Prior knowledge:
Helix content is 34%, strand content 26%. With 382 residues, it is an alpha+beta fold. A five-stranded antiparallel β-sheet has the order 5-4-7-2-11, sandwiched between helices. Strands 8, 9, 10 and 12 form a four-stranded antiparallel β-sheet that branches. A hairpin with a 2-residue loop joins strand 13 and strand 14.
Amino acid sequence: MSFMEKLRGQLIDIIEFLDESRDTIVWRFPRQGNEIKNQAKLVVREGQSAVFVSEGRLADVFGPGTYTLETKNLPILSTIQGWKYGFDSPFKAEVYFVATRQLTDLTWGTQNPVILRDPELGAVRIRAFGTYALQVVDPSALLRQLVGTDPQFRTDEIGDYFRRLVVGRLGPALAEAGVAAIDLAANQREIATQLAGQLSEDLSEYGITVPRFVLENVSFPPEVEAALDKRTQMAVVGNLDQYTKFQAANAIETAAANPGGAGDGMGLGAGMGLGAAMGQRLAQSLGTTAAQPAPAPTGPPPLPAVESPWYWAVGGTQSGPGTTADLAGRVRSGEVTRESLVWQQGMAAWTAAGEVPALAPLFAATPPPLPPTGAPTGPLAG
């Protein structure tokens, strides 16, 4: 093999870049000291641009296509090189392939919350995240401003800078949108479009644009979300006075299903009164005025409820039926005492009269039994 054949073997005759990484923005062709020979083939695929740099100066830029490198399609490089010995001789140049397709599925997010003054909630902290796409529209500006001599420039090298840029733009964009924080979800597309334009303007000096910007989610701190949940629950309840009446009706139904508890009429009434009072206090604290009761219809009053008869045991024998007034007379005569068993419809079992709340007033004025004869009396007794 002659010397010239060995030299031809060291010359580069095909220049191309097959990107398998999907995240490479700029890739420098590995020349490693080899020279590009005359009539070499340059293959630039769709979504790429090829930039020639000679002696540190940016020269020619090629779009998609296949080129045979010769003087007529390298005007700037020809001017730089001078071609003292003609273009037939090999030449040295660095070739950078720049991805001009959209680089998608890039993510962003606020590491720290952004403080927003909301007209309804006041000062509130929010977080946001989403995706975006980058696209190189000026390869020359990108090489001059960001890449330099980096042999492989990837998206992660610009990711941190872009995230800081987004956070800096997010607060003003949300403020300029003029919508309440709880309405941001309905305006995410308009806010994202506005942010995309502002970010493209900021990145124009680097030859980069943002063709797509997505605001996927805006979230509040946990305590704010809990307060909003409470507010939603209150809206679902609606009229607090009607809700209190509904709760009282449920309590009556539950008590009726439990006869042992239903026998305690005073306890049931006290529970209903307490529930109504709590409902009124809650309504007043929330600035809600309870609905006034409807005026009673004209006409005679309703008939009094018929009292269920009482039965009592005296000496192991059942007596009755009788009214509460009958029992009161027997209590005064001493026939019925606190320990006497009584029963009325609705009670689960015979119960000592002194333990039935409805009969408690009958024994209020009844004196206790006399002490045994000879027992000490008075305050010094015992």
